[in-house]
Amino acid sequence: MSKRRFITRNKLALIAFIAFDNALYSQSSDQQDTIKALAAETTRHSVLTYVQRYIDDENKVVGYSGTLYLHIESVTLHGCDLQINVVVQDKYSEVAQKQEPAGKRAFLEEQRSFTYRYTYQLNLMNVESLQADSPIGRPNQLQNYTGATCEEDKFCNLQWLRIKTAKPAIKETRTLNGLLDFDQTVDTITIPITSHEIALQSAAYLQDIAATCH
């Protein structure tokens, strides 16, 4: 082999190594940015202070007032394996009308608390296409049919990071007060985020990492 061919092959090998090294650096940078953006959310909460009233089947007034706390408990990204843990706490008082003898009315108040824990697991290497965006909307605990209104936002809307895959590829596990309530593979999840800017940044980073992993 001539010296010239040897030098040319060495140059090609060096170029390939630099390109590979830059790809790794880019992925590592995106991972760090994603972790940094979402990890900051573990120190913050999304909060909704709500009230709702309705007439039950017995024509009695039932009212609720409570507070909903939502936050990311932890997030890990090892290579292409992503796991996000979310906690939602619903603490409220239920006031129900009770009919007393002689036509008198009384109201009974009961304190309640529910804790939902969500675990989302996703291997980005196995995802053909991933979409992430930043919608606003009500949490599942306060859907439209409840008629709830909130102090922080009249319509009880919050900022979310939504992750979608072309096929069910996200392992979702949910417990309610410590008991397993849901365990399936889904194609869409929503993560509570405290600001639109962070939701946009996280969506962009996740899409970049998914493209690199795939």
Number of strands: 11
Uncertain spans: 2-27
State the oligomer.
single chain
Mean pLDDT: 82
Based on helices, strands and strand pairing, what is the structural class?
Answer: alpha+beta
Write structural notes for this entry:
This protein has 214 residues and is an alpha+beta fold. Helix content is 26%, strand content 48%. Helix 1 packs antiparallel against helix 2.
Quickly describe the structure:
The chain is of the alpha+beta class and 214 residues long. It has 2 helices and 11 strands.
List strands and helices in order, with pairings.
Layout lengths: L2 H37 L6 E10 L5 E18 L2 E19 L5 E19 L6 E4 L2 E2 L11 E2 L7 E8 L4 E7 L2 E8 L1 E5 L3 H18 L1
Antiparallel strand pairs: 1-2, 1-7, 2-3, 3-4, 4-9, 5-8, 6-8, 8-11, 9-10
Main features:
48% strand; elongated; four-stranded antiparallel β-sheet; disordered N terminus; 2 helices; 214 residues; seven-stranded antiparallel β-sheet; alpha+beta
